[in-house]
Amino acid sequence: RLNCIRNNVWLACCGVVSAGLAVLSSFGLMLFCGVPFVVTVANAPFLILGVGVDDMFIMIASWEQSSRKKEKPDVKSRLAETYGEAALSVTITTLTDVLSFFIGTWTAFPSVRSFCLYTGTAFVFCYIYTMTFFGAIIVLNHKREQGNRHWLTCMPVGVDKDQAEKSCLYNACCIGNCSRQSSQPEGEHPMNIFFKKYYGPFFTNKWIKLLVVLLYGAYLGGSIYGCTRIREGIDLRNLASDDSYVIPYYDDEDKYFSAYGPRVMVVITESVEYWNETVRLGIENCTQNLE
Questions:
Q1: What is the dihedral of CA 29, 59, 54, 199, to 10 degrees?
Q2: Distance of alpha carbon 203 from its chain centroid, rounded?
Q3: What phi, psi does 75 have (nearest 5°)?
Q4: Are 35 and 121 contacting, i.e. CB atoms less than 8 angstroms apart?
Q5: 55 in Cβ contact with 90 (< 8 Å)
Q6: Taking the CB of residue 278, how many other CB atoms lie within 10 A of it?
Q7: What are the C-alpha distances in Å from 254 to residues 238, 244, 250, 261, 288?
Q8: What CA–CA distance (Å, rounded) separates 152 from 173?
């Protein structure tokens, strides 16, 4: 909002910090438990950030809605109502995410197992921080608004009586107009108005509902057809960029060496005295026999 009191930039930043704390806690716990850290785990913070920001928006939207159900709600009742509205959806999404990643730990691939352990644990911590840390931040931000303090500096902002004579930019950045001091009730957010008055009625039209059902049927049919065309295995060319030197290497290998079958490697698992001539001759004879 273009209001130096109602702007929630710091609240959004704290939501990102909450996701970051979840990543740090998860990684620290897994490293302490001795779970191997593989390269694929480095992608986990992006997943946690997406879920954490989504939970943050749900919490803030529920908090904003709670202010309109009573004339002068106190902080405790507003926070209780916020958790009552938001906690259910946040809990369900977290449970499904955690369950899906912990199921992935049953795989035989160690790298995938480590990735699922790190990410699933991070989702648990993200839920804990959202329900505790971020809820406290919402209350602190509400107290800042009630104290008529600036969103950036947290310093008290006076209410200028000559707002009409000032520019819109000056009024938005330097003049406070706290909701409890305003004679008019606070208006709804434009996004809420759009979904309530336009988006919702549009999709409740019977022809639009029929179109949605037909589109979903076409999507479902295409998905089933795609599943029947999936081939098991992976082409290593798809793991590299188009201009990588790996692409012509695999092309040449497939063209010139595919008739020879798979590559065979022999590993000596014991310590060997390579300086001993007799041992070297034995290894050479073993190699010739294998050939």
A1: 170
A2: 28
A3: -65, -40
A4: no
A5: yes
A6: 7
A7: 15, 17, 6, 10, 26
A8: 10
Q: Where are the domains of the chain?
A: 8-153
**What's the predicted TM-score (pTM) here?**
0.68
Closest to 7 in 3D by CA, of 227, 179, 129: 179
Euclidean distance between CA atoms 205 and 199, whole angstroms: 11
In one-letter notation, the amino acid at residue 282 is: G
Report residue 280 as tokens: 């070297």
Residue 149, beta-bridge partner list? 156
The token pair at 137 is 């931040």
The per-residue pLDDT string of the chain (291 residues; one tens digit each, 9 = 90 and over) reads 667 788 888 899 999 999 999 999 999 999 999 999 988 899 999 999 999 999 999 999 899 888 766 666 788 989 999 999 999 999 999 999 999 999 999 988 888 999 999 999 999 999 999 999 999 999 999 998 888 888 878 788 766 555 555 555 555 566 654 443 443 445 677 888 898 899 999 999 999 999 999 999 999 999 999 999 988 877 777 778 888 898 899 889 888 988 887 778 888 888 989 999 999 999 999 989 988
Number of Cβ within 10 Å of residue 94's Cβ equals 19
User: Contact, 19 vs 13, CB < 8 A?
Assistant: no
Residue type, 44: A
Question: Could you tell me if 138 and 60 are in contact, meaning their C-beta atoms sit under 8 angstroms apart?
Answer: yes
What residues have CB less than 8 Å from 44, skipping those under 6 apart?
23, 26, 115, 118, 119, 122
CA distance 11 to 20: 14
